[in-house]
Amino acid sequence: MKNGMKKNKKHQPVDPASLAPTATAGNFTLHARTVGALPIINRCMERCRLRETLDTFLPAEDGRNRVSTATAVLSLVRNILLRAPNITPVWRFKHGV
Fold this sequence. Notes:
Helix content is 45%, strand content 8%. The protein is mainly alpha-helical. It has a domain at 36-86. The chain has a two-stranded antiparallel sheet. Helix 3 (50-57) packs across helix 4. The longest helix is centred in the last third of the chain and has 15 residues, at 69-83. The model has no long low-confidence stretch (mean pLDDT 80).
């Protein structure tokens, strides 16, 4: 070792599952996981067939773009939905609050 510096060990990535909280009762173990909004948003877009709808109604691609117009619009929609501030709860619509 030169100048009192310690030799660095290789960084071992931490398994996120080992950091997640767990609860055990009897023979059962519950592992808590956090799922972000993006997989849910993507699934909703797939079920709504949003890409197919955009491809149908947007102008045809002419080769000047690196990304299709539908892909760009879907990216913008995802960005807006992920950045949306608190969405009004359903009960407010139901009760007119």
